[in-house]
Every structure is written in C-alpha cells, then in structure tokens.
Amino acid sequence: MISLSSYLILSAILFTVGVLGFMLRRNIIVIFMSVELMLNAANLAFVAFSRYLESMDGQIFVFFVMSVAAAEAAVGLAIIMAIYRTKETVNADELNLMKW
Amino acid sequence: MVETALFTVLAVGTVITAILVIIQRNPVASAIYLIITLFCLAGVYLLLNAQFIAIIQVLVYAGAIMVLFLFVIMLLNLEKEKKLITRHRLQKVLGVFLGIILLALIGMIFNSVLLEGSKGKFPPEKVAALGNTEVVARLLFTDYLLPFEITSVLLLVAIIGAIVLAKRQI
C-alpha cells in the first residue's frame, strides 16, 4: 500500500505549481486555472486523509469544494468576460485601476 | 506492486501536465493540459478507493468547468495576448525560488505534524460492502443535510450572478 506521505507530497507539489502559475502568469484565464489547480491539490489531501483515517468526511468535503469551485468558475469567468468587454484585454498588468 | 506502478505513472503525469498548464503560452493548450491533469487526479482518487469523487471529478471538473473555460477562451479574442512577451525575468527567477521555499515549508509541516489520528467509523471493508456512493449519499442526506441545502442556494446565486455579469448592460 502506498503511504499517506506520497499522496501528501503530490498534493504539495500540485499546490506549489498552482501558486507559481498564479504569481507568474499575466493572462487572467491562466491565473484562474492555477486557482483550480490549488483547489485540486487541497481535494487530493482531503481524499488521502479520508482514506487513511478511515472516515468519509473528507470525501464529503471534496464534494462541497467541487460545488463551490463550479460556482466560482461560473462567476469568475463572467467577471473576466465583463472585464474584457470594458478593457479589451485579459492581461493582469493592464488591469491596474485599483493600484495605489 | 501494480498499485505503486499506477500511482507513479499517475503522479508523474499529474505533475508534468500541471507544470505544462502554467508554462504554455496558448491558453487553449493550458486548458487541454489542465483536463489531462484532472483525469490523472481522478485516477489517483480511484487508487484511494474514492470512486464517487473520481467520477464527479471527471463529470464536473473535466466536463463542466473546463468546457466553460474553453467557451470563454473561444469568446475572447486572445491573439494579441499570445504575442505578448513578458519582460519580468527577475520576477520569474524569484518566483521559482520562492515556490521551492513554499514546497519545502509544506514538506516541513507534513514532517513535523503527527499524521495519525483516531480511526473513523468507515473502514475499507465496510465501505466496500455498502458501496462508496451509498456511504457518501447517506452521510450527505443525514449528517450534512444543511450544508447540502446551502450548496443549492450557493449554486442558484452563482447562476444569477453569472447571468447578471454577462449581460451587456447592467
């Protein structure tokens, strides 16, 4: 049987890749995909713990995380559409209206 | 033995495609690689005996959410952004460096914290006898009924919000 820590290491790597994409990319859509990657890393940790602690609560939590992710994707992509309509760009550097 | 081999293949596939997601210049290619990442993760969930979550992962994530992403990429005209050259070289180097530090920190947390606890009420044999989906459904409609109902309200709010935001004149 594969140890719990290998799953957690995979989850940590996935989360770090998501953070890197979030910080380094300029395209809002790719930034959004990086957020999905981080959510998936958290989901993986939940399922791994649920398996190794012999409890189903982790899987229920993953279910809720997924429904929140679906809602977030719908609203977030609508916001990206609205931004594109007014600013004609999806480059995060040019969306500096709230920059001090 | 087979389990270890499968896990290795799926883990390597997940990590490589996840890295490809963030280094691809073309957002469509990023989205396709993200779909492959999600499929590999569904395989990992199957290894963890979470069949229901694996199917939901393919249906909701790889199906619904990624189709939404591809639709939005299709609706936006991204030719201009594709040619955009980022000049932040120092930022990239620093970002990767800090990313490695973050990974080390998470690893240290996993190392220092005791990763054991009291076992729950669902050993694998019991789950296998009842069926994974049935156990999840029973919990969802008994112990977690209120969060489940609140989720429906959340989804309704998201639908209305998306429609209002996507309208031409608000």
What does this structure look like?
- The complex is a heterodimer of chains A (100) and B (170).
- Chain A is mainly alpha-helical and 100 residues long.
- Chain A has a domain at 26-94: Helix Hairpins (Orthogonal Bundle), CATH 1.10.287.3510.
- Chain A has 3 helices and no strands.
- Chain A has helices spanning 4-24, 28-52, 57-87.
- In chain A, helix 1 (4-24) packs antiparallel against helix 2 and helix 2 (28-52) runs antiparallel to helix 3.
- The longest helix of chain A is centred in the C-terminal third of the chain and has 31 residues, at 57-87.
- Chain A is elongated and about 50 Å long.
- Chain A starts with a helix and ends in a 13-residue tail after the last helix.
- The model of chain A has no long low-confidence stretch (mean pLDDT 90).
- Chain B is an all-alpha fold.
- Chain B has 2 domains: 1-85, NADH-ubiquinone/plastoquinone oxidoreductase chain 6, subunit NuoJ (Four Helix Bundle (Hemerythrin (Met), subunit A)), CATH 1.20.120; 123-170, no CATH class.
- The longest helix of chain B has 25 residues, at 51-75.
- Chain B is globular and about 55 Å long.
- The chains are: A mainly alpha (100), B mainly alpha (170).
- Chains A and B meet through helix 1, helix 2 and helix 3 of A and helix 1, helix 2, helix 3, helix 5 and helix 7 of B.
Any descriptors?
heterodimer; A: 100 residues; mainly alpha; Helix Hairpins; 77% helix; 0% strand; elongated; B: 170 residues; Four Helix Bundle (Hemerythrin (Met), subunit A); 2 domains; 79% helix; globular
How would you summarize the topology of this molecule?
The complex is a heterodimer of chains A (100) and B (170).
Chain A: H1 4-24, H2 28-52, H3 57-87
Helix pairs in contact in A: 1-2, 2-3
Chain B: H1 2-23, H2 27-47, H3 51-75, H4 79-82, H5 89-112, H6 124-130, H7 132-141, H8 145-166
CATH topology of the domain at 26-94 in chain A: Helix Hairpins
What would the principal axes of the Cα set say about the shape of chain B? globular
- As for the CATH topology of the largest domain in chain B, it is Four Helix Bundle (Hemerythrin (Met), subunit A)
User: What is the mean pLDDT of chain B?
Assistant: 88
Q: How far apart are the termini of chain A?
A: 53 Å
Q: Which spans of chain B of ≥5 residues are poorly predicted at pLDDT below 50? A: none
Oligomer: heterodimer
Class computed from helices, strands and strand pairing of chain A: mainly alpha
CATH first level of the domain at 26-94 in chain A: which class? Mainly Alpha
Q: Give the biggest beta sheet of chain B.
A: none
Q: What is the CATH architecture term of the largest domain in chain B?
A: Up-down Bundle
User: How would you spell out the order of helices and strands of chain B?
Assistant: HHHHHHHH
